[in-house]
């Protein structure tokens, strides 16, 4: 019998998460039943949504999240032993999965990545990549020559959104929080960057986009987003992926949030990537092609060791990662 390690949500979050919010425990793994498979984690994801979604979980719950792992036992023909799979089973080293019990975020065997790292199954060739692909293209509907602004641009989703925008012939401005991140964004093709910790966002955006902004992919919300909305052109489109600036409960400086929507007749839409579950592998296939063609460059920030999951999560929430934050078991 296997023994699994797991991190539980031990204490409610107050403002920024700390190590006290988590507890590492062990438990025996039960025997497999028909229709189930057993997965051993190889790479685990830490993402901003965990901070806000966990508020709906009772204390003592396993921390939520996805992982890529190896199928080590199976009584499900769709998940053969030795295959690599993605499963939304939380911060666990070994898990039992019955795909029939998942209403959404169902587990699946990874496509053949060839020489690409399988950790991309949680990132550019998984939920992250599809969030960028569908959330940007389906909602913003970018046109060649348009100006696109991406906040949280050096993160896992934002960096891919910006590169897809370039593929579609747009001019792209990325907003990030360090000089290193801004330098990297320019290296991967962004036309301009704004360091929100050092620059005056409003003035910098006026210089970079003097004619206004057609598309905005919003990862952060708060003051940054209100400034961008104020410089959008009439009939601009906004795709709202997240509001990370507000996740830790700090008050945000806000301008009148409705004025620009009314006067400029803007379109804004929030989304969950699982709206496009029926097209999931379309996004993965296209992003894989763009990666192989060199049109999308991917960066991952690795943390070694399952015992360091909380630290990786805390660092990611503080913006210390560039690209996708990944924990390697």
Automatic annotation (TrEMBL):
GO molecular function ontology, one term from the record: 15-oxoprostaglandin 13-reductase [NAD(P)+] activity
Keywords of the record: Acetylation, Cytoplasm, Fatty acid metabolism, Hydroxylation, Lipid metabolism, NADP, Oxidoreductase, Phosphoprotein, Prostaglandin metabolism
Region forming the signal peptide: none
Reactions listed under catalytic activity: hexanal + NADP(+) = (E)-hex-2-enal + NADPH + H(+); 20-hydroxy-leukotriene B4 + NADP(+) = 12-oxo-20-hydroxy-leukotriene B4 + NADPH + H(+); octanal + NADP(+) = (2E)-octenal + NADPH + H(+); an n-alkanal + NADP(+) = an alk-2-enal + NADPH + H(+)
Transmembrane segments: none
Family that this chain belongs to: Belongs to the NADP-dependent oxidoreductase L4BD family.
The protein's name: Prostaglandin reductase 1
Lineage: Eukaryota, Metazoa, Ecdysozoa, Arthropoda, Hexapoda
